[in-house]
UniProtKB/TrEMBL annotation:
This protein's UniProt keywords: Amino-acid biosynthesis, Chloroplast, NAD, Oxidoreductase, Plastid, Serine biosynthesis, Transit peptide
A Pfam family of this chain: PGDH_inter
EC nos: 1.1.1.95
PANTHER family: D-3-PHOSPHOGLYCERATE DEHYDROGENASE 2, CHLOROPLASTIC (PTHR42938:SF46), FORMATE DEHYDROGENASE 1 (PTHR42938)
Keyword Plastid set for record: yes
Protein name as annotated: D-3-phosphoglycerate dehydrogenase
Keyword Signal: no
NCBIfam families in the record: PGDH (TIGR01327)
All residue ranges annotated as the ACT domain in the record: 562-634
Pathway assigned in UniProt: Amino-acid biosynthesis; L-serine biosynthesis; L-serine from 3-phospho-D-glycerate: step 1/3
One GO process term, biological-process aspect: L-serine biosynthetic process
Annotated organism of origin: Nelumbo nucifera
Reactions catalysed, as given in the entry: (2R)-3-phosphoglycerate + NAD(+) = 3-phosphooxypyruvate + NADH + H(+)
PROSITE patterns: ACT (PS51671), D_2_HYDROXYACID_DH_1 (PS00065), D_2_HYDROXYACID_DH_2 (PS00670), D_2_HYDROXYACID_DH_3 (PS00671)
Length: 634
């Protein structure tokens, strides 16, 4: 059931169809209506995962589309209309898959889009192709740099990382360009943990070296005497999804496991018999150190000469996380001087590493070419997980695995949907009341609610208010991904205040007020005594309503266009304005009058289906007793 319309919150929704890919490539989609889908189209899926947006029959929030071109996000309306036509005709989006993806995931993608599987593209080739693509799916081998987002010219709406690590995607650039980044964080966890354990065992028993030796015709039993795992201490560095699975398995091997993770809850570790300890304690007491933290500026080269100076002599290191968390030159030095007895590495600073890499060639190092996630099961799971996330995002749904946008649980989304529309409409309306809209610097949003502040997630509302305020006064495309960034860039400060009201906590928000300070208004009646523009809205019967302008109460549904007139309260005013509009063929959809006192000042709010021409508006202005009026496009 579709409800009212609102511009895209997240990414343009793109319709599916059977039209040719050439037309699809030139088609664009953007966003305009917010709707709940009672049931989503069924796609030819073979799903083996619990998280599936398609199987779900529960209502999901979809922000659908129509206006903007993917070639230029600041497109003109006329261009947009061509595209709108294309979208209604049902053009398919294009998804570029730049690294091998499991067939099950490709099947999901093909049910919705044109899929271009082009592996091993050079950076230049990727930049050339990307402006024809709505989404890009990568693994760890594709660098999605700022240049890629620039080359996309605004068309790229989603980058899907078929796996966990997103260190190969320039997240800041993605956010600035309003491009959503989603990943597939769970499907390869077990595979990575199993590979960690495989490397641990293979390293300690010299499996790879002994194998190579035998294949070279040798039989060197005394050379490859290993060390045992039982009773030894393993330090798991990073107690997240993979780290905790490694810990669980290591416990099963009879190891004593400690872990360092500044963000992990101690009770989760304790539950599997793992002690959370400090970094120094972990590295100085461990016989084995297994790395499971993400590569971030804080973890880059965390294992360096200084770290190796603190480890127990003869420690063994396993890395299935990211090569960059180790200073590889320092590790070679530590291996050469025996501080580190052995290392088993699946990941490298540069992938593939240079052929003459001392680390790869080192006799005490066991290596695999980034195989942690490479099991049939994990790849199938990851492919489906990312395909669903990307298709969902292209449909305009908020993704549960968004990396650069707030993740809002489905229940919260469903509940907030009408308020999300209200928020955008109020922002759009408030900014049009400002004389010279671009000078806005300070906006205060007041949410009146019977809910405890902890039970009211306002991030979506805030993003939509920002979108409503900024879009009418700039060519910037705003969505949930870049709303905060764009507001900051434009020097717009948005503060939020929550006011507790008695009422039913069953509805999340009683009313939303937007206050804009330090600006002139083109409709003086919208100003409060303190000089702030103020508008207030509520959701009534699921529909956003304007309930207050300045000090005047009104009651009009926020739909289409609105004329606000201030007049001296007297009989016959509605008739006069109504007949001017009627004579000019402008259909009045609703009217509401709010007044301070009988026969004093009143505000008339008139909803109109069509935009009146200048002459009609001038005639309204000439009606005696109308003191000011403003036309607002919602
Ligand atoms: N080799 C592979 O094929 C493969 C497969 C899957 C995951 N990975 C990599 O493994 C790593 C972990 O993946 P995950 O799914 O467990 O991620 P995760 O987010 O679930 O866990 C990462 C953990 O690291 C912790 N952490 C962050 N900074 C830390 C620090 N300075 N010191 C200690 N801990 C820190 C976090 O709190 C978090 O608990 C990632 O880098 C991921 O890319 C590699
Ligand atoms: O972060 C990950 O998910 C792993 O490193 C897997 O990377 P891959 O998809 O390139 O195998």
């Amino acid at each position: 059931m579709a409800t009212a319309s609102a511009k895209s919150l997240l990414v343009p929704r793109v319709e599916t169809s059977t039209l040719s890919s050439t037309r699809a490539d030139s088609a664009a989609a953007a966003a305009t209506s917010l709707q709940f889908l009672k049931s989503t189209p069924s796609l030819p899926l073979k799903l083996s995962h619990s998280r599936s947006c398609f199987r779900s029959r529960s209502p999901s929030l979809v922000i659908t589309n129509v206006l903007k071109t993917q070639d230029s996000l600041s497109t003109s309306l006329s261009q947009g209309r061509d595209l709108e036509t294309g979208s209604r005709l049902g053009m398919k989006p294009t998804i570029l898959v730049s690294e091998k993806l499991g067939e099950a995931g490709l099947e999901v993608l093909r049910g919705f889009a044109n899929v271009d599987c082009s592996y091993d593209l050079s950076p230049e080739e990727l930049c050339q192709k990307i402006s024809l693509c709505d989404a890009l799916i990568v693994r760890s081998g594709t660098k999605v740099t700022r240049e890629v987002f620039e080359a996309a010219k605004g068309r790229l709406k989603v980058v899907g990382r078929a796996g966990v690590g997103i260190d190969n995607v320039d997240l800041q650039a993605a956010t600035e360009f309003g491009c959503l980044v989603v990943n597939a964080p769970t499907a390869n966890t077990v595979a990575a943990a199993e590979h960690g354990i495989a490397l641990l065992a293979a390293m300690t028993r010299n499996v790879a070296q002994a194998d190579a030796s035998m294949k070279a015709g040798k039989w060197q039993r005394s050379k490859y005497v290993g060390v045992s795992l039982v009773g030894k201490t393993l330090a798991v560095m990073g107690f997240g999804k993979v780290g905790s699975e490694v810990a669980r398995r290591a416990k099963g091997l009879g190891m004593h496991v400690v872990s360092h993770d500044p963000y992990a809850p101690a009770d989760r570790a304790r539950a599997i018999g793992v002690d959370l300890v400090s970094f120094d304690e972990a590295i100085s007491t461990a016989d084995f150190i297994s790395l499971h933290m993400p590569l971030t500026p804080a973890t880059s080269k965390l294992f360096n000469d200084e770290t190796f100076s603190k480890v127990k002599k003869g420690v063994r290191i396993i890395n299935v996380a990211r090569g960059g968390v180790i200073d590889e030159d320092a590790l070679v030095r530590a291996l050469d001087n025996g501080v580190v007895a052995q290392a088993a590495l699946d990941v490298f600073c540069e992938e593939p590493p240079p052929k003459d890499s001392k680390l790869v060639q080192h006799e005490n190092v066991t290596v695999t070419p980034h195989l942690g996630a490479s099991t049939k099961e994990a790849q199938e799971g990851v492919a489906i997980e990312i395909a669903e996330a990307v298709v969902g995002a292209l449909r305009g749904e908020l993704s549960a695995t968004a990396v650069n946008a707030p993740m809002v649980p489905q229940e919260v989304l469903s509940e907030l949907a009408p308020y999300v529309m209200l928020a955008e409409k109020l922002g759009r309306l408030a900014v049009q009341l400002v004389a010279g809209g671009s000078g806005i610097q300070s906006v205060k949003v007041v949410y009146r609610s019977a809910r405890d502040p902890d039970d009211l997630d306002t991030r979506l509302l805030r993003a939509m208010i920002t979108k409503g305020i900024i879009e009418p006064i700039s060519s910037t495309f705003i969505n949930l991904v870049n709303a905060d960034f764009t507001a900051k860039q434009k020097g717009l400060r948005i503060s939020e205040e929550r006011v507790f009201v008695d009422g039913s906590p069953g509805s999340p928000v009683d009313s939303i007020q937007i206050h804009i300070s330090n600006v002139q208004s083109k409709f003086a009646s919208a100003l409060l005594d303190n000089g702030e523009i103020c508008v207030e809205g509520r959701v009534k019967y699921g529909v956003p309503h304007l309930t207050c302008v300045g000090a005047f109460n009104v009651d009009v549904s926020l739909d289409g266009n609105l004329i606000l007139c201030r007049q001296v309260d007297q009989p016959g005013m509605i008739g006069k304005v109504g007949s001017i509009l009627g004579e000019q063929n402008v259909n009045v959809s609703f009217m509401s009058v709010g007044r301070t006192m009988p026969k004093k000042q009143a505000i008339m709010a008139i909803g109109v289906d069509e935009e009146p021409d200048k002459e009609t508006l001038k005639m309204i202005g000439l009606v005696p007793s109308i003191e000011e009026f403003v036309f607002l496009n919602l």
